[in-house]
Amino acid sequence: MSHLTIPADLLPRDGRFGSGPSKVRREQVDALAAVGTTLLGTSHRQAPVRSLVGRVRAGLAALFDAPDGYEVVLGNGGSTTFWDVATLCLVQERAAHARFGEFGAKFAAATTRAPFLAPSHVVSAPAGQVAVPEHVDGVDAYAWPHNETSTGVIAPVRRVAGSRDALMLVDGTSAAGGTTLDVSQTDVYYFAPQKSFASDGGLWLALASPAAVERAARVEGGDRWVPESLSFTTAVTNSRADQTLNTPAVATLVLLAEQIDWMLEQGGLAWAAQRTATSAGHLYSWAESRDWAAPFVADPALRSPVVGTVDLAPEVEASTVTAVLRRHGVVDIEPYRKLGRNQLRVGMYPAVEPDDVLALTACIDHVVEQLV
Q1: Cα Rg for the chain, rounded, in angstroms?
Q2: What's the CA gap between 236 and 242, in Å, rounded?
Q3: What digits encode the pLDDT tens for the residues 204-235?
Q4: DSSP state of 303
Q5: How far apart are CA 249 and CA 331, in angstroms?
Q6: Which residues, 6 or more positions from 121, have their beta carbon under 8 angstroms from its beta carbon?
Q7: What is the pTM assigned to this prediction?
Q8: 193: preceding bond cis by omega (within 30 degrees)
Q9: Strand, helix or coil at 247?
């Protein structure tokens, strides 16, 4: 394998294609350096950092065209922490989940194991396909991922018919900022900043409806014990003051704010969605045109624009291809480990240049030509 090389003129200008953490733009890093001695190492309770949090909240409200009454809420921890927050504070008696990959399965497991909730109703689909929530009597919260980072499947975001007062909790972690949606079809659209928003982890962010805020206040005001650090109501209260309960990673907030501003300046969510669609269109058409590759998601309508998965023929070992690419600075296109497929997985978030996706596929072609 060490003899396999890729000519420099084929390589992408930036070789980062991770599905999360994802590529951080140079301009974000420069902005972070510029505030290194003014914001980093200062109190998160004082005006400069609170102003930064306010900038993030206002930017997200604008980017997603937040409906009247919806609030941008943030808290310490990532989406995994938010599953616990939602289990404790947003599900009153029983949840229903759609599970079609690793991340939807984890949230379903959290509510199913909660001793104070009835067993969750779960509809499932095999990896590479999609399941959508269905109406179930007695369910007061429906949950599903907008995009499965593990498999590269995107799901529709719309309220479950006949759900009445039930909340819609949609995991936007890898979709948010990279594709369009109508936020009013959700009650909580939550995500973390290390994918389309090109930041570090350690935060959860959510667009929350008045119904969700009221639900949390009612549940937490009852006899259910909720730790303060996992309280949705506490997160709402602190967010309204442009702060978090515990000390946030200020560097993460700076990177996040810079990315949001950049996306708004370029044209907002519609621009970002068109950019990722351009990258994805190339990746999938390239895979379909090779006799040793194919998109893992068979239905084109379900193929993610932000995380592309491509199966390789048995004679083309993905581990060899990715190792050669990594030696040349093209990184993080390995498949999701638990999926166990001979596969490539490519992050195509807004920070990734579509021309670099073109260069990536040219590099893969070059490596495969030397292998077979």
Answers
A1: 21
A2: 10
A3: 999 999 999 999 999 999 999 999 999 999 99
A4: B
A5: 26
A6: 94, 95, 96, 97, 136, 139
A7: 0.97
A8: no
A9: coil
